[in-house]
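lol forgot to send this yesterday, sorry. struct tokens for the thing we talked abt
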């Protein structure tokens, strides 16, 4: 028996599938397909907020440098404003690294509800529903590999 995917809720092997607390033999599946639900705008808005949070220190730093060059201030004040602007801009690098990690995770989770369906003995059955795009892809590919493996003619 070959195991294609395993986690606490899903098991896909060369002999069968266990999802949603139910077990199926690969031969039970007449057809398998997936659907994508509507986009979650809160996930998209969260990514936008992270993008703004990454850009804000750079904009503030640039404004500080611009003010330092435009206003008629003493040399010390001009250097202080420009230096402060540069330091604030440089603070964006470590902040961006942390925020980019959150952006990566948000894309792994996805912004849509994803479902795997199968036709089992003439009835459409929802096998899995998740918003984790990475996990969905792993499970769906594992299911495809298992079904492809099952359809290979075996020698007697």
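and heres what i got for the seq, position by position
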């Amino acid at each position: 028996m070959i195991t294609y995917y395993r986690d606490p809720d899903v098991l896909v092997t060369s002999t069968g599938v266990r999802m949603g607390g139910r077990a199926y033999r690969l031969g039970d599946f007449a057809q398998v397909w997936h659907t994508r639900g509507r986009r979650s705008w809160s996930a998209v808005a969260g990514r936008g907020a992270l993008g703004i949070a990454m850009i804000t220190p750079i904009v503030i730093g640039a404004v500080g440098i611009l003010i330092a060059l435009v206003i008629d201030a003493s040399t010390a004040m001009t250097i202080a404003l420009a230096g402060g602007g540069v330091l604030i801009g440089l603070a964006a690098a470590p902040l961006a690294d942390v925020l980019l990690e959150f952006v990566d995770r948000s894309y792994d989770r996805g912004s849509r509800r994803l479902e795997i369906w199968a036709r089992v003995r003439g009835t459409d059955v929802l096998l899995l529903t998740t918003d984790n795009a990475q996990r969905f892809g792993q499970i769906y590919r594992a299911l495809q590999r298992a079904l492809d493996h099952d359809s290979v003619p075996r020698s007697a």
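The chain has two domains: 3-39+111-150, 41-109. anyway ping me if u want another try
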